[in-house]
Amino acid sequence: MTKEEEAGYQSSAPVPTGSEPPNGGLRAWLVVVGAWCTSFCSFGWINSVGAFQDYYQASLLKEYSASTISWIPSLQIFFMMALGPFIGLIYDKYGPRWLIIGGTFLHVFGLMMTSISTEYYQILLSQGVCSAVGVSAIFQPALNSIATWFTTKRGAAYGLLATGSSLGGVIFPIMVRRLIDEVGFGWAMRISAFLILALLIVAILTVTTHNPPKFQPITLKRMMTPFTEIQFSCLAMGLLLFTFGLYVPIDYVSVEAAQAGMDPNLAQYLVPILNAGSLFGRVFSGFAGDNWGRYNIFVSVCYLAGIFVLGLWIPAATDGARIAFATLFGFMSGAYVALIAALVVQISHPSEIGFRTGLIFLASSVGGLTTDPISGAILEKPIGWLGPKIFAGILCIVGTSFVLAARIHRTGWKLRVVF
């Protein structure tokens, strides 16, 4: 028996009909490899948007304001998440393969079109919309497929595949900046697109479901039913609010450091440092979640993420303090990507995993779309950088509190329950 079963709090999601998930074996781990590739090319790519924000402001789109340019990364995050319910319905009916094939085409085509774009609207459509729609179609089906192959080792599987986005967040910003300097913006985008294409071919060949998905037609009642469940509603609200807080450091840590006097050559590495810390945090969260409970681990480390924003980033006045914050925040916030799907699976019926995961991403997309514009507006206030930092820290803590409420609704106030 798992520790959850021993404690009397087994997940409400029963094992799907059909053969039992193998929880290992070559085929199951190949699915994790393919999902890792989608993670590298989706969240890993999105985590590098700061590199493009800097380049667009300084060169290609310098006649536009920073807030106007910020709609490009904001739309990328929004479309990646907002299409979740539609991607989930297609997944529930047809499985992951055709979604990943279509998503690969749109993602690569969007980046290729970006490489020849010179106008704001062209970049907005190609990188902010076309590529982002492709990203939505590749990462969610891979996440959902993991749940059909693993139960007892599900957290570890999610944690391992989530390291792909961290590694992508380390490699892509450095690679893009170096390539822009050496071969120009156009070829930097093309080389990135070719790398993404190669990795997604691996995903197309390896990502499958263990048991065939079961499609249920969408109705208004079906869409609203999950939100009548207290646990699901608290989880959705918590992840939405945490998304608001999460992307402020990711998008602004380098900009804030450079404006505070850090050498720009060092400041540009803060986002890769943050993502490197996140890599280890995601592995830890995945494996620890299997042993101590996924909700327990998420709540513990995400509270610390908010505390580090308020207690370390706000008073940070030296290069060392900012590097320490990027590392620690990256490690603690790694649970967001590593466990987000596992949290949904744990309170959902297997026949609705794709749809419910999509609803969670749809809710979170609001944060992804509006975080940068809201943070930019707050930044213009007299208190300057203090405003966005307080905004990020408070929302990380409040969002985590909603996830804690979902856990308490299931288990009560028993702290030692593994859930």
From TrEMBL:
GO CC terms of this entry: membrane
Location of the region described as Disordered in the Swiss-Prot/TrEMBL record: 1-20
Record's subcellular location: Membrane
Keyword Membrane annotated: yes
Pfam family for this entry, one: MFS_1
Keywords, alphabetical: Membrane, Transmembrane, Transmembrane helix, Transport
Signal peptide span: none
Gene3D superfamilies according to UniProt: MFS general substrate transporter like domains
Keyword Kinase: no
Bilayer topology: Multi-pass membrane protein
Transmembrane regions listed in the UniProt entry: 28-48, 68-91, 98-117, 123-143, 155-175, 187-209, 230-250, 266-285, 297-317, 323-345, 357-379, 385-406
Chief place where the protein resides: membrane
Family: Belongs to the major facilitator superfamily. Monocarboxylate porter (TC 2.A.1.13) family.
PANTHER family tied to this protein: MAJOR FACILITATOR SUPERFAMILY (MFS) PROFILE DOMAIN-CONTAINING PROTEIN-RELATED, MONOCARBOXYLATE TRANSPORTER
Protein name: Predicted protein
